[in-house]
Amino acid sequence: MPPAKDNFPTALPFLPSKLNIRNLQAAARQCKGCDLWERATQTVFGEGASRARVMLVGEQPGDKEDIAGHPFVGPAGKILDEALAAAGIERGDVYVTNAVKHFSWTPAERGKRRIHKKPRYSEIRACRPWLEAEIAVTRPHVIVCLGATAAQALLGSDFSVMRRRGQFIPSSLAPRVMATVHPSSILRALDEPSRHEQKEAFIRDLAIVAHEMRRVPHAA
User: The whole model's pTM is what?
Assistant: First the structure.
């Protein structure tokens, strides 16, 4: 990651001196590396296997995750759990996280509902040190970027998920890196047949990861 410009937001000063998941989770609770912490309920850090074979990276925590303090516990998380099981990926082999650790939202026109707001580039960049630390600690064999925000955060701003989904992309981040859709996009399908078709395509992408994990010994 390039050095931060003067006054450019970054989480780097909040990282602990000793990197492990427990220390990172604790330190991230105090993060004020960008302005998202001001409106979020809490930091939602990554969770899962401390030496993950697979790391799944989404965009940001949603409303349910912001309240619960855990990643992928809402409707999109349910789709993800079902797809992982269908693809044959053990949840114990997986670490789940997001490119941004605080919920970015805007109020609905009526009522108290909070509407998801895509994080800004400055917020994604500010949070990058947390994600890099998670990768360094968990050392995943496969990183799966879920959706365009995660993919562009890790693979470059010109990366297209739709053109390259389900393919292993050369990267120094891990032995295998792939991008696919975010499970929340499946929930936004127009009708049930479309939702089923999109979910099956998502499962097929994850099945490629499962095949790679069967190919590589667990100790690798």
Answer: 0.92
